[in-house]
Design brief:
Blueprint lengths: L2 H6 L3 H35 L9 H35 L1
Helix pairs in contact: 2-3
């Protein structure tokens, strides 16, 4: 049995549920990627000498870096969402 025939045996509700699960998994993967990249980039930018704690300038740098990264991520996500909507309306 191939993947196509397995999916054709599902009801509409089952397909919808499967699609919701896939969307949730993609959302979780996106958040994990966001956190990983944000941590890597902000750590490289803000932490010169790792230690047991962050000094106030490192804390401020990390907070600002994370804010800017989230702002950028949200902007790109919104533009991408709008582009997808425009493409769907053209069809």
């Amino acid at each position: 049995m191939d993947d196509t025939s397995a999916l054709s045996g599902l009801t509409g509700a089952q397909k919808d549920e499967l699609m919701d699960q896939v969307k949730q998994q993609i959302a979780v993967a996106n958040v994990q990627e966001l956190l990983t990249k944000m941590t890597e980039k902000c750590f490289k930018k803000c932490i010169n000498k790792p230690g047991t704690s962050l000094d106030s300038s490192e804390q401020k740098c990390v907070a600002m870096c994370m804010d800017r990264y989230m702002d950028s991520w949200n902007l790109v996500s919104e533009v991408y969402r709008q582009r997808i909507q425009r493409e769907r309306h053209r069809m």
